[in-house]
Amino acid sequence: MPRPKLETDRLILQRFARRDSVTLDDAIRASLTDLNQWLPWARMDYTSGDTSAFIRDSVQAWKEDRAWDFSIRFFEDPARHVGNVSLWTVSKLGKIAEIGYWVRSDEANRGICTEAVDRLLGEAFGSMGYHKVVLRIAVGNEASDRVAEKLGFTKEGVLREELLIRGNWVDHSLWSLLDREYRALRRRSAAH
Predict the structure, then answer these.
(1) Side-chain half-sphere CA neighbours of 179 within 13 A
(2) Which residues 6+ apart lie within 8 Å of 66 measured at CB?
(3) Is the separation of the CB atoms in 2 and 13 below 8 Å?
(4) Span 15-43, mean pLDDT?
(5) What are the structural domains of the chain?
(6) How far apart are CA 122 and CA 186, in angstroms?
(7) What sign for the dihedral angle of Cα 60, 63, 65, 71?
(8) Integer-rounded Cα radius of gyration of the chain
(9) For 10, which DSSP code?
(10) For site-directed labelling of 64, which of 27, 87, 92, 110 has its Cα 20 to 30 A away?
């Protein structure tokens, strides 16, 4: 299990609590038009009840050790929710995890997802002992692809008709990063 609060130079990643409902709902509403095309839960008729249900499920998932959702916030403005980053186990035997992420539209292109995912990778390959982390990204979601590329993930291929979104089956690219690749990238980064 990762720690419930992680930090970077400018970000706080913390597990959700019921008090986060209003700020999470605000971030989703500010970004719904963009999120709608990529994520099945981001329906245009999304309600605050959906936000409350997500938080309840997130709190329960932490208790059951099955998924770890984090709210992304800036140190300079910790009351404002700027996105989500989540980690869950795909295969216990294979020591494989998956990470998902999104950032509110008015904070896009600032490296927030890259920074948050990088921090969560440190937990996944560190104390959690995963061997491989994967990302599944809707084909055409170039911003998410850039995050994968910046962090050194390898594009393995395309998962055909992977997810039903707004009545359409959407292909997803599969990206992966191995623990040894992560360590090599961090060593190179530290050397510069």
Answers:
(1) 14
(2) 88, 89
(3) no
(4) 93
(5) 5-191 (3.40.630.30)
(6) 10
(7) positive
(8) 16
(9) S
(10) 27
For residue range 122-153, list pLDDT tens digits in order: 999 999 999 999 999 999 999 999 999 999 99
What are the tokens at 2? 């990762």
pLDDT of residue 115: 97
For residues 171 and 158, is the Cβ–Cβ distance under 8 A?
yes
| Cβ–Cβ < 8 Å for 155, 142 | no
Give the strand pairing for 96-103 and 168-178: unpaired
DSSP state of 29: H
Amino acid occupying residue 50: D
Distance of alpha carbon 59 from alpha carbon 44, whole angstroms: 25
What tokens were used for 61?
């998932």
What are the two backbone dihedrals, phi and then psi, of residue 41, each rounded to the nearest 5 degrees?
A: -80, -15
Q: Is 111 helix (H, G, I), strand (E, B) or coil?
A: coil
Q: How many CB atoms sit inside 10 A of residue 175's CB?
A: 23
Average pLDDT value over all residues in the chain: 95
* Strand 132-138 to 96-103 pairing: parallel
Give the dihedral of Cα atoms 94, 178, 67, 160; nearest 10 deg. Answer: -80
Give the separation between CA 158 and CA 171, rounded to whole angstroms.
7
In terms of Cβ atoms closer than 10 Å to its own Cβ (0-12, 13-18, 19+), residue 161 is exposed
Hey, how many other C-beta atoms are within 10 angstroms of the C-beta on 78? 13
Whole-prediction pTM value? 0.94
